[in-house]
């Protein structure tokens, strides 16, 4: 599985049909939730062989390294557009789970010309109550990413 450069981020991704979308299918791009990875969607991909399916480890998650740039929903959405651009995909159905649901909502609102459909699976609802919970979870995820980066660079 290769990497794509998007907005100065190295993003790990997989592509079920790198040669392009099958004639009768559509392109789907899948965005995982906070603390997850593109692997979340791997059990689904074999059931969508008539479609091109792109999965991405968002910036700072799993195999996509964290480089101390701030992480935000608009930033992740811009990275997704960068992936579509790099793969020469004009339009896609965007699918997101949990925090990825916020990202696909942002994509639909900010880039409607690039989105042919939005599928939000158990999306997180932004609220003041959840801010501290999400900040703690993000800190834990980033701590793990930083630990993994330091540990792997010392091997």
UniProtKB/TrEMBL annotation:
Superkingdom per UniProt: Eukaryota
Domain AB hydrolase-1: 27-139
GO biological processes: acylglycerol catabolic process; antibiotic biosynthetic process; monocarboxylic acid biosynthetic process
Pfam families: Abhydrolase_1
GO cellular component, one term: membrane
Transmembrane regions listed in the UniProt entry: none
Example of a GO MF term: monoacylglycerol lipase activity
Coiled-coil residue spans: none
Protein name as annotated: AB hydrolase-1 domain-containing protein
The organism of origin for this protein: Penicillium chermesinum
């Amino acid at each position: 599985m290769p990497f794509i450069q998007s907005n100065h981020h190295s993003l790990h991704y997989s592509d079920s049909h790198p040669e392009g979308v099958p004639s009768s299918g559509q392109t789907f791009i899948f965005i995982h939730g906070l603390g997850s990875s593109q692997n979340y969607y791997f059990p689904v991909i074999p059931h969508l062989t008539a479609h091109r399916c792109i999965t991405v480890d968002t910036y700072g998650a799993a195999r996509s390294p964290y480089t101390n740039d701030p992480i935000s929903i608009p930033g992740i959405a811009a990275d997704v557009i960068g992936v579509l651009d790099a793969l020469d995909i004009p339009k896609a159905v965007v699918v997101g789970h949990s925090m990825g649901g916020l990202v696909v909502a942002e994509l639909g609102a900010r880039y409607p010309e690039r989105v042919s459909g939005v599928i939000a699976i158990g999306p997180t609802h932004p609220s003041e109550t959840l801010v501290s919970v999400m900040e703690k979870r993000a800190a834990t995820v980033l701590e793990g990413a930083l630990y993994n980066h330091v540990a792997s660079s010392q091997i």
